[in-house]
Structure formats: C-alpha cells, structure tokens
UniProtKB/TrEMBL annotation:
It comes from Candidatus Abzuiibacterium crystallinum. GO terms for biological process: regulation of nitrogen utilization. This is Transcriptional regulator. Belongs to the P(II) protein family. One of its GO terms (cellular component) is cytosol. It comes from the Bacteria. InterPro entries: N-reg_PII (IPR002187), N-reg_PII-like_a/b (IPR011322), N-reg_PII/ATP_PRibTrfase_C (IPR015867), N-reg_PII_CS (IPR017918). Pfam families: P-II. The lineage of its organism: Bacteria, Pseudomonadati, Candidatus Omnitrophota, Candidatus Abzuiibacterium. GO terms for molecular function: ATP binding; enzyme regulator activity.
Length: 113
C-alpha cells in the first residue's frame, strides 16, 4: 500500500480527477494549499492574476492505493497535471503502514478498496 501525494496547479485539478476516475481510482482527498518551489514564490501572472509574496496557490491531491494502482495514479497526476511550465508541482510516494475503514473495521488492502 502506498500514499501518493501530488502538489499541482489548481487549474489542472479537474483533468487529474477525471483521469483518476477513468482508471478506477475514486478515493481522493483534495486540499487547497500554499507553497513555493525553486521559483521561491516569485510573483508571476497566473490566470490573469498577479501572485504576490513568497507563496503560490496550489492543490494537494492525496490518494491511498494498493500497490497495483501506484503507477496509474502517478501517471494521472503527472500527465494530467503537467503544463510544461515552471511550478507544475511534485509527486511524493510514501509507504502506507496501515489503513482502517472506520465503519467496518476492515484493514489494509480491503479497507482501501
């Protein structure tokens, strides 16, 4: 089991979610976040808005998956999240030690679904 975290541009979210859905990956958590990368949050024009300060708007997509769904998840986040411009984001893959479905008490691969 893995926990995949993608930090992407907000305007790429719909495409990423659509790709995940097409691959049968439905359990997703999405959070609006602020951050900066190598560009150090330098103000840029983004969707006709000038982003100021040290942090830029991003979206964090979190997905817990069984091992056979890791690559499809990464392909969706990387492919549908890519614009080719600086600030496209990052993907982190972490080992997931345990997962428990609260309603039923199911654990691990069964709980992820």
């Amino acid at each position: 089991m893995k926990y995949v975290i993608g930090i992407i541009q907000p305007d790429r979210l719909d495409d990423v979610l659509e790709c995940l859905n097409e691959r049968g990956i439905h359990l997703v958590t999405v959070t609006p976040v602020l951050g900066r990368g190598r560009q150090k949050g330098v103000s840029e024009i983004y969707r006709s808005h000038k982003e100021m300060g040290g942090l830029l708007r991003k979206v964090k997509v979190e997905v817990a998956v069984n091992d056979e769904f890791v690559e499809p998840t990464v392909e969706c986040i990387a492919g549908a999240g890519r614009t080719g411009n600086i600030g496209d984001g990052k993907i982190f893959i972490l080992d997931l030690q345990e997962c428990i479905r609260i309603r039923t008490g199911e654990r691990n691969a069964i709980a992820i679904g």
